[in-house]
């Protein structure tokens, strides 16, 4: 009896994750590789994406699994047709849908925004399951978001309803910051503010200045999420991504600020941690097909 799986890719600015996923969201095989950097952008020509897909199909053959589709999430704006409409992170010269369809000629392919894939995975099999509507935040190297309604991420008219990182930093947190929230509170932004590569190095450095940078990042995000609640009134906020779902000073400061700014509500939407962890984007990408 054949076991059918969907090949799934979660392409990020730091790594490219790949998995074989069953219909119930079970990951049977997982692999990842670092994303190659080309100046400011990543994965030039989508060479790493293509190689990850090729290896994924080879793994399915070795394991005796039948691939019935291919879904992939990318850290860009993606429209309703599955076409990338931005070059914020990746150095792509061909549409991923064309690249992947050429590899998987006999199975359907689908492409979506990586944050919407993560949200879809949580809606189907994770912390958002059973909720009518929730706001999903992915905090890692970058910062993005999506609103999930009736089990599906809301894409917006142009597929661009993911840009929480474009919000301003609240003046109550830092009145002198002229950049956006992503450049202040994401892993990359925290590192740049401190003068190192990322959050891990800031934590390792320690000291009052590191503590202040980490705390202010969390407070900025928590304050903005309280404003999102006033606008959308979701049943919950689900926080994912490597930095968002990890215990530590950023998450703690975010929770404190969120609680402070939602205290006047009779029942503020709870902050939930994404249940699928690093697999959320893969499980959601599989669900695209």
Automatic annotation (TrEMBL):
Instruction: Write down the superkingdom of origin.
Output: Bacteria
Which keywords does this Swiss-Prot/TrEMBL entry list? Kinase, Transferase
Query: What are the protein's GO molecular function terms?
Result: kinase activity
Q: Does the keyword Kinase apply?
A: yes
Q: Which family does it belong to?
A: Belongs to the ROK (NagC/XylR) family.
* Protein's UniProt name: Sugar kinase
Species assigned in the record = Embleya hyalina
